[in-house]
Specification:
Layout (H helix, E strand, L loop, with lengths): L1 H9 L18 E4 L2 E2 L8 E2 L5 E4 H7 L3 E5 L4 E5 L4 E5 L4 E4 L4 E3 L5 E3 L2 E4 L1 H7 L3 E5 L4 E5 L10 H16 L4 H10 L4 H9 L5 H15 L4 H10 L4 H10 L4 H15 L4 H10 L4 H9 L4
Parallel strand pairs: 1-13
Antiparallel strand pairs: 1-2, 3-4, 4-11, 5-6, 6-7, 7-8, 8-9, 10-11, 12-13
Helix pairs in contact: 4-6, 5-6, 7-9, 8-9, 10-12, 11-12
Length: 293
């Protein structure tokens, strides 16, 4: 019931962006600075979320990373000697040794004793750029030392389009890349556009948080989750939510009013619903009592 009620309210949010999904196919390859990654006993595949899943060990080896498996925690570790990223199995959240949390759009999985995940999160954590060549079905990983070439016409246009979008509304880096890909830029052009448009992603998170609060009420944790859903990193989402300076008691009162406009509640039921939305008990009680209980 609580999930249904939350869903009915969230229907008011028609801000989600279209994303590009690759069709189920085979023959996917990965290159690192122009050198193809050799697959041995494991091959990339397309998962049920239309995401390209690759065996991470092979890519980690190609990137010169140390690869380990923590049997107890059921997670794969990749390190360059300075920092480490952890991929817990069946989780959509990878974490870095720097304290960062990386929200992925599909979970890391084990297939035939190999850890699979979208390669973008591994490569970008260590400072690589990631692109996609749809004609050759190749994931293109490039180190920053190899991206100093003059931009192509497509890359220049992607930067221009990225700036145009940011003038209209805020985006996360991941969301802007998806939007540019939707506009038929190649993945490499979209990544270049997002990385060279001059955006401050924390500032974008602040703008996005403000837009959401102008539309409807949120708890602090609910707004953080919404920004993460939009592609912001956990650090960016937390920064955006905290920087907006919202009064969470007032947000609880507004959310309670939204629910009461939708249907009738008992006092205890409404408090429980607000707590489900992420408000603290005290905030939920305040919100309910501000609406006549």
């Amino acid at each position: 019931m609580k999930k249904l009620l939350s869903f009915l309210l969230v229907l008011a949010l028609v801000l989600s962006l279209s994303s590009v999904a690759f069709g189920a196919t085979s023959g996917i390859s990965v290159s690192v600075d122009g050198t193809s990654v050799a697959w041995t006993d494991a091959q990339p595949f397309i998962d049920s979320n239309s995401r390209t899943m690759v065996p991470l060990r092979a890519v980690g080896d190609a990137l010169g990373l140390t690869v380990e498996w923590d049997k107890t925690a059921r997670e794969a570790l990749f390190s360059n000697g300075t920092k480490t990223i952890y991929f817990p199995i069946d989780s959509k959240v990878a974490r870095g040794s720097d304290g960062s949390q990386i929200t992925m759009d599909t979970a890391a999985v084990i297939v035939n004793s190999r850890t699979y995940s979208p390669v973008r999160y591994l490569a970008e954590f260590f400072g690589y750029t990631v692109g996609w060549d749809g004609k050759t079905k190749t994931v293109i990983i490039s180190s920053k030392a190899n991206t100093g070439k003059n931009p192509t016409t497509g890359e220049k246009n992607a930067v221009s389009k990225a700036k145009s979008y940011l003038n209209l509304m805020p985006f996360s880096r991941a969301g802007l890349i998806k939007q540019l890909e939707y506009e038929k830029f190649t993945s490499a052009e979209a990544v270049y556009g997002a990385d060279n448009c001059g955006a401050d992603w924390k500032a974008q998170a602040v703008r996005k948080a403000g837009d959401y609060l102008d539309l409807m009420a949120f708890s602090r944790s609910g707004l953080v989750k919404q920004l993460e859903f939009d592609g912001f990193t956990n650090a960016e989402a937390v920064y955006g939510v905290d920087a907006i300076g919202a009064d969470w008691n007032a947000q609880a009162a507004l959310k309670a009013k939204e629910y009461l406009n939708l249907m009738s509640f008992s006092k205890a039921g409404l408090i429980s619903q607000l707590e489900y939305e992420g408000f603290t008990h005290d905030q939920a009680v305040y919100g309910v009592e501000q609406n006549g209980y």
